[in-house]
Amino acid sequence: MTSNRRALISVADKTGIEDFANALINKGFSIISTGGTASALRSAGIAVTDVSDITGFPEIMDGRVKTLNPLIHGGLLGRRGQDDAVMHTHGIVPIDLLVVNLYPFEATVATPGCTREQAIENIDIGGPAMIRAAAKNHAHVAVVVDRHDYAAIVDELDGADVTLSEATRRRLATKAFAHTAAYDTAIAHYLRHDGGHHDLPEVLTLGLRRQANLRYGENPHQQAALYRLPSTGNAGLIRAKQHQGKPLSFNNIADGNAAIECNAALKGAACVIVKHANPCGVGLGKNLLQAYEKAYATDPTSAFGGIISCNLPVDENTARAIVDRRFVEVIIAPGFDTGALGAFGRKPNIRVLETEPFEQPDSSTLSIQQVIGGMLVQNTDTDATDRASLKTVTRRQPTDQELTDALLAWTIARFVKSNAIVYCKDGATLGVGAGQMSRIMSARIAAWKAQEAGLGLTGSAMASDAFFPFRDGIDIAAEHGASVIIQPGGSMRDDEVIAAADEHGMAMVFTGVRHFRH
């Protein structure tokens, strides 16, 4: 790449492009450009040749067709020393540097009120075609898709021969192909969801974009980063505003996401405390302070160093109650009043994160887990269980309050690692047993944790994320005073399990739905 070469510039994001173009001209490049980019460069006093002057063909169809021309793509694809004769015959002049970033499709579809027509018109065609052409021919052409690369390119061009190395061109080409792949993925993602398609796609592309490097992964010896899926909007922790505290760790993000997922399924003022990806306390209340007190009371020991999420903006009284207690890693909510921020400011190490209001995913949202050699993909576990869908299988019918407690326990069990047992009463968790290899052990641990916290289980509801294979879990619940059990049913020993509930005078309802969580 020597002096007297040509650079084609066509960018939607024009940040820094004037300085970059001037630097290229100083290195001996002449500039070709299109539409708005050409106008912006001319306004800055930069000499520009329009693409239409090269092709002899005007931009048409409201800009849909402007660079799709052999004189442009031949200039990008022509192999120096091999295609020179055919290029000369057809008047094709080489293009040595391509600077393109694409129509802001993701930003457009994330805008409230975006119409399908607006989305479609922001699908770039000519840009990706040029990027792929230049990237394919990176032996001779450099392609730039990221404005953050401008400075490094100028620095390298400061060399005596005004040349970018083969290694640099290869790196830029790699980045370019990843860029167009992510762009196409965002479009496919939009069209799939816009069309209401819930089937798993035959070809699944993720198009992940790195949002941030993390200090390390689950453990200090593991590298880690946070990546963002295309067209995810502003929900969750991906776009949260951090008011104070150190950057989030890998484990902070994983636990924070678990807290948001659980909280999004709850109605009214709700607080969820998560430790190691499991809810260790959940409370509903007339206000957030009452909800937090209930959640904390479930398991004060595990709440130490935990993640707290609140589904309503946090007020000063709730914030003071949180900071006056044990160490908290992260607090997440869709807002904080001035007094709350002031209270958290007393503990500057607490990470305070403000998100958009929590939203439950719909069944089209995909859950992805890596395995050796591939990915396991499924629809996100959602649940429409309500009173009308429950089937009472015992002689005793549950009371209205028992059903309310049972449904809360059932909702929370969906977010507890299997095998999961949850006891609830009066809008609060009393004991949570998570992640055990046997269901009876989870039942025992949940009851033991309630005892450790000084919470009685008399009159409580017990939820199990999957069926009871034996009656022993029912006997444990009865021993500690639970009065109603909610579970999927479907065991070979359902009759034995139901008989145990009848023997203890308990009510039992079946949901017909299982909620394993691994």
Explain the overall architecture.
By secondary structure, the chain is α/β, with parallel strands linked by helices. It has three domains: 6-194, Rossmann fold (3-Layer(aba) Sandwich), CATH 3.40.50.1380; 238-354, 3-Layer(aba) Sandwich (Cytidine Deaminase, domain 2); 385-510, Cytidine Deaminase, domain 2 (3-Layer(aba) Sandwich), CATH 3.40.140.20. Helix content is 36%, strand content 20%. The chain has a six-stranded mixed sheet. Helix 8 (126-136) packs antiparallel against helix 10, helix 12 packs parallel to helix 14 and helix 14 (316-323) packs parallel to helix 15. The longest helix has 29 residues, at 166-194. The radius of gyration is 30 Å and the shape is elongated.
Q: Helicity, in percent?
A: 25-40%
Counted by DSSP, the helix tally is 19
CATH-defined topology of the largest domain: Rossmann fold
Low-confidence stretches: none
Strand content: 15-25%
Mean pLDDT across residues = 90
CATH superfamily of the largest domain: Methylglyoxal synthase-like domain
Instruction: Sketch the major β-sheet.
Output: 6 strands, mixed
